[in-house]
Structures are given as C-alpha cells and as structure tokens.
Amino acid sequence: MSKLTVAKFGGTSVADHQAMLRCASIIKNDPSNRLVVVSASAGVTNLLVRLTQSKVALPEQAEIIEAIRKIQFNITQHLNCKDELNHSINNLLDELTTYAQVQSTSACSRIADAILSFGEQMSSRIFAQVLQSIGVDGHYFDVRNVMKTNSLYGKAVVNTVELHQNCQQQLAPLLTKQVIVTQGFIGQDEDQYTTTLGRGGSDYSAALLAEALDADDLAIWTDVVGIFTTDPRITDQARSIKEISFGEAAEMATFGAKILHPATLIPAMRHNIPVFVGSSKEPDKGGTKIQQKVDSAPTYRSIALRREQTLVTVKSPAMLHASGFLAKVFNVLAKHELSVDLITTSEISVAMTFDNPTGSTQALLNSTVVQELEQLCEVTVEHGLSLVAVIGNKMQKTNGVGSRIFDTIDGINVRMICHGASEHNLCFLVDEHQANQTVEKLHSALFA
Ligand code: ADP
Ligand code: ASP
Ligand code: MG
C-alpha cells in the first residue's frame, strides 16, 4: 500500500476559513496525508469548558453557545455547501444546549465530557467540506467508532487493542479510497458515552491512530515552526530544533512544553513512527523531526516550564531509621488518586510536587488529604510554584552541569532540585513570579 501519513491540525490551524484552507493545501500537496485528525477551532473548547460548570445561568449558556456558533459560521459562510453544513452544526448546537441545561442543574463528569466533545465534532465536519472545496475527496469519520476507552471521564484511557482492531477493520479500507477527517481528543466508553482524553489530547489521539494504522509517519501541524529550545512565548531567543530524539522530546512534553501533549510520543515510540512538528501557517519553513536516532545528542537541548505546581513537604521524627513511613504517606495519596511528580527526601522529611492543571488537585491537597496526612506527620502545602526542566543528554554523567545551571540563576530562590534519576533532565522549582526570568537567564547562558 502507498505511504500513510497521519496529519493532525491544532486549534489555531483550524481557527478560521483562511487557516483551514492552508491546512487543506498541506493535505492536497502530499497524497500520503490520508488521515486528518483535527482539534476544535481555537477558543471553542475553552467556551465549552464554561458550559461544563454547574449553575451556569440560562442567558450565559445561550451567550456561550452563540459565541461558538459565530466561530463556526464564520468559516462555513465561505463554503458552497454552507446551508447543509450550518444545518448539521445547528443540530449539534441544539444537542449541546440540552446537555448544557442538564449540566447546569446537576453537574456530572459524564455530561461534561459530552459537552467538551462538540468542538471537535464541528471542526471535523467543517474541515471535510473545506477539503472538498479545493477538490480533495475528504470525508468525515466519527472517531468514537474506533477510539474505545474506559469511563474515566476527563482523562479516559484508550483500549489500544480494540483501537487497532477497529482501525484495521473500519478505517484502513476507507483510507485506500479517500481522505478521512476525524476528531482528536474524544472517544467512547463501553456504555456508548462520549469520553475525552484530557486537554490538548488531540496530539495523543493522532499518535494512537497512527500506531493503530501502522502509519509511516505522523505530522503535527501547529502555530510554531517546530519544537523550540524553549517556549518562544517566553523568549524571542528561542530557536527551532531540526532533529530531536523520542526520549528528549518526550521529556520536554512531560515537563510542560505545551507543543505536544505529554502522552503523544508513547505510541510513536512503541511503533517507531517518526513525528514531524511544523507550522500550518508556514509549511515551507520546515520544522522538527522527532525520531529514534538523531545525529547529535547535546548536553543541553531545551528548557521546559510547567506552571501551577504544588509542593507538599511532610516531616516526622518517626521517619528517622524507621521503615514503612513513606508507604503510609503514599497510601493516603493513592487512595485519593493523586500522582506525585517529583520527590526528594532528607532524614526526617520528604518533599513532593503535584501538577495542578485543573485546580482539583489543589482543592484536595488543601483539605482532605492534608487532614489525613496530618494524622501521620507535620504537613506543609505551598502553591504558586513553577517547575523548570533543563533537558538534554547524559546530564547525570557530565561534569559541571549543576554548577553551570545554578551559577546562571544565582539570586533566584530554588525550592527543590531533582537530578540523576533521568539522564535527560535536571529540574527544579522556583516561585511562579520568577519563572520566566529563570528560563530567560538559562536560555541565554545555555543556547546563546
Ligand atoms: P495546538 O493548538 O496546535 O495543539 P498548542 O497551543 O497546544 O497548539 O501548542 C503550541 C504552543 O506551544 C506554541 O504556540 C508555543 O507557545 C507552545 N510551546 C511551549 N513550549 C514550546 C517549545 N519548546 N517549542 C515550541 N512551542 C512551544
Ligand atoms: N480541543 C481540545 C483542547 O482544547 C483538544 C486539543 O486541542 O488537543 O484541549
Ligand atoms: Mg496542543
């Protein structure tokens, strides 16, 4: 069979008609692009998130839904088939209205996921028509037919065995005849309820589909010309990296480089599928190739930043020469499904960090969990911290890495340091308000 590339377009790439047309040209210019995975148009998922909250008054619901309709109709008005398409968008928005009303009176995570799925449901229908408008035989496919998950709403886990079987049976035959446009981010559980894979999850969906279809490569089209030495929004000194290994890029994604959802590279690595990251605005400018083997393995590759970290320090003299104390602490955390990110220990205290993307972790750590931990030890919880990760190669075996990094940021209060567990990173916590400054200083010292 001819080459298969899975192409994923993020929110800004499908934000408006011009943006969608640029993406459609990318598909048209390379016939190997046969499966297209789209995110919701920029801004739509954030609007939907507002509808997932409880007690949203009816006028506000209507206002949000109108704002979504406007974003989508601004695109469809440029298409010949706009009446038919607007009709199907309106049907979806009617369905959304019903869900929003239910959610506002009795909020639950199952309905929240149903609500969140509408952005991708709409953008994929529209993008298939944009492809048609430039002469590409693009067809809509509902990913929920193949992307089967468990019922952990908001962060559903995909059944990769079922996904593989379903893709081979349902999608592979279609891909020999036409270009298929489907949704990132969403799936379906055993009870046929819609699920979502977590914010930013479309990258991960695309990688899972690439794996299930034995694709030759995966292209992630976004708003920047590849993966940079750090987030280009933090410093204009950041520059695009031509080639990077799976290990380094996975580490970047894990440590907060928003360019890729943290799980994206897991399927790609499992199946050795090279990943390209480029800008749909400037496709000719190239981008970053992520693959197993790369020519260079520099000590310093990039700097990632993850904001909103919570640091919990537990302290007890009972820890001294005693066994079992940490097990008790981790039992409490496991009971509340809290996952610890980084950990450092001293004789009588342990410091742990928690990622806090949604705020629910913060709520838990402020109340129930602290009370339970306080039965065992003294507990301190601190918010407002950022995790800086310097990513590279053989960092734990290279002399002078620590001094170079910490001399550079002399004067900035470093709260916790983790080094040595991974050969690919050295990371530490700083106060949120010093985070950008820390990254800028390090970037100019390590990459100038
Ligand atoms: P999409 O909607 O296409 O998925 P995202 O907004 O999720 O796009 O990710 C792209 C953004 O990631 C960029 O605009 C950039 O600000 C941010 N980013 C963070 N770290 C990096 C990095 N190391 N290289 C490039 N972009 C980065
Ligand atoms: N639309 C979803 C979000 O905004 C998924 C994605 O864009 O990857 O989180
Ligand atoms: Mg993204």
Automatic annotation (TrEMBL):
Stored Gene3D superfamilies: 3.30.70.260, Acetylglutamate kinase-like (3.40.1160.10), Aspartokinase, catalytic domain (1.20.120.1320)
Highest taxon listed in the record's lineage: Bacteria
Pathway: Amino-acid biosynthesis; L-threonine biosynthesis; L-threonine from L-aspartate: step 1/5; Amino-acid biosynthesis; L-methionine biosynthesis via de novo pathway; L-homoserine from L-aspartate: step 1/3; Amino-acid biosynthesis; L-lysine biosynthesis via DAP pathway; (S)-tetrahydrodipicolinate from L-aspartate: step 1/4
UniProtKB keywords: Amino-acid biosynthesis, ATP-binding, Kinase, Nucleotide-binding, Transferase
Domain Aspartokinase ACT: residue ranges: 388-445
EC number(s) given by UniProt: 2.7.2.4
Presence of keyword ATP-binding: yes
Tagged with keyword Phosphoprotein: no
Matching Pfam families: AA_kinase, ACT_9
Residue ranges occupied by any Aspartate/glutamate/uridylate kinase domain in the UniProt entry: 3-278
Catalyzed reaction equations: L-aspartate + ATP = 4-phospho-L-aspartate + ADP
InterPro entries, sorted: AceGlu_kinase-like_sf, ACT-like_dom_sf, ACT_Aspartokinase, Asp/Glu/Uridylate_kinase, Asp_kin_monofn, Asp_kinase, AsparK_Bifunc_asparK/hSer_DH, Aspartate_kinase_CS
Top-level class of the enzyme under EC nomenclature: transferase
Similarity section: Belongs to the aspartokinase family.
NCBIfam families on file: asp_kinases, PRK09084.1
Protein name (Swiss-Prot/TrEMBL): Aspartokinase
UniProt source species: Thalassotalea profundi
